[in-house]
């Protein structure tokens, strides 16, 4: 009877103790100070303290909270039964301590992008004002039937299309791809005394997680129990070590990515994904050199267009006032003044629109996203779209030994050839490894990073990472980093210093990584390449591109894709500049000398969005060729003039301007039977027709390789381009013959079609001359 009473009493005490853990922070149960502050909320400890505790491996850091039992109390959990498992409690823990995910940068909504497109571009603001003013003046002077729909309406359509295109481009670029593999992984946790299966994303601080052979540690935590527990930490820090863990000391910290090699145990989760992500390096900016150049192109030519439009408007207003009022003394009615001013504003607007590179942003966006989609087939998943453009100008790649080798026994098949391809084309391959100097040297020689034994003995070519980490002089470290080919004894911290030293010396760097502690280096590099098979989620979330097959060959293919996209975008920019220069020059000269413009805003919009945006798609359908690795690239920081082939721009622009002038003057012989008003419309339609055909021929010149030596192969390999070009010509015929009101054109007869098309296709001869000159120069 006495024994039964004692047993019942002990059971009541234990039940009360467990209830106390679930009910409160339990500073009453343990002799530890109440350390709650305004940052700890309903819990006895805040997430900042937990992150610091996770990073601190000594026993004292934990003892200040009363050991693991004190932490159990502060987190309102139980080391045996876990949290209570109620939905409200899980939500509260996610809200306070964060979720076990690595959230992507917030994507902008389409409405936000639409608003930014409206108010960030001063030219579009001006266009909106012009559209409203022109519509109001058109209604006042000509009524709803004619003035609103043809003049003000055209202006409004062009403005809206510009805004929508810019918004689409902004929205597309904000949709950053993110790999979310953790959402499909499940993990057993203890909640309410029962083992339940939850998504890794739903693991929260305070959870108790059983650990068994083959499991991966899903979050940061502290070991509770261990039975012959051994853990492989190679995916955390790159060390190929199996570490034995013991719970008795209370100082065993576990990091995500570790794998249970033997034994079993349990752990208490102390930090989850969002907290550990915040430790990483600050944002160092993601705007690429090419992005800056494209912005410079748009800004420069837009400013020129606005200046030209203002000059024309002032000239026309002054000329109209002087001739009509001062010279002839004609009295004008207010209605006539409004009508004339409206026409002058429309002319100035057409000149300004001619200078806006409307098709370039769309062409760039389509090209990048088309390339990133096709790169997946080559086992490269691009998480940040502009990363593939940045790859083009990266001249250094820091590779882990594991990316170059199969194991410790040898290199990946063909890796030496891939390394030599990179070295030949200006990309320096540098290897980092935690192996000793002799092993690092042997692998470097086998992979072709070191040319010979003599090369390995050259100053700083083979370097000890421990010595590199001890260097204190920044300049000495930068000079040393530029010479290093192979670095042995390289820890993740030294790898980060290596990346920083190269960047500080003016180099652009790509770096590979797969372990958790590589996250800093992956973020600091210009391009972070994470391995998918062996890589941890922390490494992947810190990267720009994920290599799906963990192969160095795929890294090289990513370089080739980057240079292909870079070269294509430069071609698009060249085409866009040609369109803008010709349209702006033609409209400016016609406005000053004749008081009207041959190419209106809708026609220029058609050329930009149909030809400049759609035709380039045929370039990105081809896989990148090996010779792209040899292409000439402009170094980072070079001015705009280094990107543009000015001679070609001048010659092609001059040809198109001369062709338009020929129509303007010599075309009169075809227009004698028309009255003056209709003759001007026919002449402008022929100019528009020739202008469109010239841009198609310009695209042919961009694909000049093989057009003379292997014409049949050229046609078969450019079938998509031929199809798009044919579709545009058919569409052009429909526009001119049936959509005259929308485009301000009139139907042409057979002779007028022949005359305008002949001038357009004659640019082919000019392209052939340039190509022959190119062949002669190359030979």
Automatic annotation (TrEMBL):
Ranges of residues in domain P-type ATPase A: 188-274
UniProt-listed Gene3D superfamilies: Calcium-transporting ATPase, cytoplasmic transduction domain A, Calcium-transporting ATPase, transmembrane domain, HAD superfamily/HAD-like
Its membrane topology: Multi-pass membrane protein
Keywords per UniProt: ATP-binding, Calcium, Magnesium, Membrane, Metal-binding, Nucleotide-binding, Transmembrane, Transmembrane helix
Top-level division of the source organism's lineage: Eukaryota
Residue span(s) of domain Cation-transporting P-type ATPase N-terminal: 65-133
Subcellular locations according to the entry: Endomembrane system
Subcellular location, principal: membrane
Transmembrane segments: 304-324, 344-369, 577-595, 601-620, 649-667, 719-743, 755-775
GO cellular component, one term: plasma membrane
GO function terms (MF aspect): ATP binding; ATP hydrolysis activity; metal ion binding; P-type calcium transporter activity
Keyword hit for Isomerase: no
Cation-transporting P-type ATPase C-terminal domain residues: 597-767
InterPro entries per UniProt: ATPase_P-typ_cation-transptr_C, ATPase_P-typ_cation-transptr_N, ATPase_P-typ_TM_dom_sf, ATPase_P-typ_transduc_dom_A_sf, ATPase_P-type_domA, HAD-like_sf, HAD_sf, P_typ_ATPase
PANTHER family per the UniProt record, alphabetical: CALCIUM-TRANSPORTING ATPASE, CATION TRANSPORTING ATPASE
Name of the protein this chain belongs to: Calcium-transporting ATPase 8, plasma membrane-type-like isoform X2
Organism this protein belongs to: Prunus avium
Gene assigned in the entry: LOC110758353
């Amino acid at each position: 009877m006495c024994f039964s009473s004692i047993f019942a009493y002990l059971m009541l005490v234990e039940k009360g103790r467990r209830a106390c853990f679930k009910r409160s922070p339990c500073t009453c149960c343990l002799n530890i100070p109440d350390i709650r502050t305004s940052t700890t909320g309903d819990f006895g400890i805040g997430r900042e303290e937990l992150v610091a505790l996770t990073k601190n491996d000594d026993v004292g850091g934990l003892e200040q909270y009363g050991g693991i039992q004190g932490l159990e109390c502060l987190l309102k959990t139980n080391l045996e039964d876990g949290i209570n498992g109620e939905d409200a409690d899980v939500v509260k823990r996610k809200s306070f301590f964060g979720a076990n995910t690595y959230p992507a940068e917030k994507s902008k909504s389409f409405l936000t992008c639409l608003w930014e497109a409206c108010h960030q571009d001063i030219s579009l603001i001006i266009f909106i004002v012009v559209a409203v003013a022109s519509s109001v003046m058109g209604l006042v002077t000509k009524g709803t039937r004619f003035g609103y729909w043809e003049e003000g309406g055209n202006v409004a359509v062009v403005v809206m299309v510009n805004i929508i295109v810019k918004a689409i481009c902004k929205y597309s670029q904000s949709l950053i791809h993110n790999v979310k593999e953790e959402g499909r992984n499940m993990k057993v946790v203890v909640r309410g005394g029962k083992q339940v299966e939850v998504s890794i994303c739903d693991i929260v601080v305070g959870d108790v997680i059983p650990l068994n052979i083959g499991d991966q540690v899903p979050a940061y935590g502290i070991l509770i129990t261990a039975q012959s527990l051994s853990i492989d930490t190679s995916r955390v820090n790159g060390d190929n070590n199996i570490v034995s863990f013991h719970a008795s000391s209370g100082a065993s910290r576990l990091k995500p990515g570790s794998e249970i090699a033997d034994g079993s145990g349990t752990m208490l989760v102390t930090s989850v994904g969002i907290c550990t992500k915040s430790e990483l390096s600050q944002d160092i900016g993601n705007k690429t050199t090419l992005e800056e150049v494209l912005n410079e192109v748009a800004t420069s030519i837009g400013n020129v267009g606005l200046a030209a439009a203002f000059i024309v408007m002032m000239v026309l207003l002054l000329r109209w006032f002087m001739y009509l009022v001062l010279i002839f003394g004609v009295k004008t009615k207010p209605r006539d003044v409004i009508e004339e001013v409206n026409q002058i504003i429309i002319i100035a607007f057409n000149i300004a629109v001619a200078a806006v590179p409307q098709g370039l942003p769309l062409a760039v966006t389509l090209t990048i996203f088309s390339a990133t989609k096709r790169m997946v087939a080559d086992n490269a998943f691009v998480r940040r779209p502009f990363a593939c453009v940045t790859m083009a100008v990266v001249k250094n790649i820091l590779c882990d030994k594991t990316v170059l080798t199969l194991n410790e026994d040898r290199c990946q098949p063909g890796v030496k050839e891939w390394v030599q391809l990179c070295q030949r084309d200006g990309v320096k391959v540098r290897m980092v490894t935690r192996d000793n100097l002799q092993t690092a040297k042997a692998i470097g020689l086998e992979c072709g990073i070191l040319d010979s034994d003599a090369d390995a003995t050259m100053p700083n070519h083979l370097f000890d990472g421990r010595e590199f980490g001890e260097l204190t002089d920044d300049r000495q470290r930068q000079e040393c980093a530029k010479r290093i080919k192979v670095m042995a004894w390289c820890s993740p911290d030294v790898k980060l210093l290596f990346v920083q030293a190269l960047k500080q010396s003016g180099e652009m760097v790509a770096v590979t990584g797969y372990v958790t502690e590589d996250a800093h280096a992956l973020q600091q590099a210009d391009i972070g390449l994470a391995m998918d098979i062996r890589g941890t989620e922390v490494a992947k979330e810190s990267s720009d591109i994920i290599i799906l097959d963990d192969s160095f060959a795929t890294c090289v293919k990513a370089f080739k894709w980057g240079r292909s996209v870079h070269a294509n975008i430069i071609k698009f920019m060249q085409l866009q500049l040609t369109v803008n220069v010709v349209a702006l020059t033609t409209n400016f000269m016609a406005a000053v000398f004749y008081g009207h413009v041959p190419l209106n805003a809708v026609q220029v919009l058609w050329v930009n969005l149909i030809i400049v945006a759609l035709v380039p798609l045929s370039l990105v359908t081809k896989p990148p060729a090996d010779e792209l690795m040899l292409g000439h690239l402009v170094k980072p920081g070079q001015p705009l003039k280094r990107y543009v082939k000015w001679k070609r721009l001048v010659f092609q622009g001059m040809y198109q301007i001369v062709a338009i002038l020929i129509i303007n003057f010599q075309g009169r012989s075809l227009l004698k039977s028309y009255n003056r008003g209709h003759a001007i419309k026919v002449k402008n339609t022929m100019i528009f027709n020739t202008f469109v055909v010239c841009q198609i021929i310009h695209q042919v010149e961009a694909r000049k390789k093989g057009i003379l030596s292997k014409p049949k192969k050229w046609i078969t390999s450019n079938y998509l381009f031929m199809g798009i070009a044919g579709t545009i010509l058919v569409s052009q015929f429909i526009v001119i013959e049936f959509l005259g009101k929308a485009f301000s054109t009139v139907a042409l007869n057979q002779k007028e079609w022949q005359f305008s098309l002949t001038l357009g296709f004659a640019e082919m001869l000019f392209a052939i001359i340039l190509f022959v000159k190119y062949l002669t120069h190359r030979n």
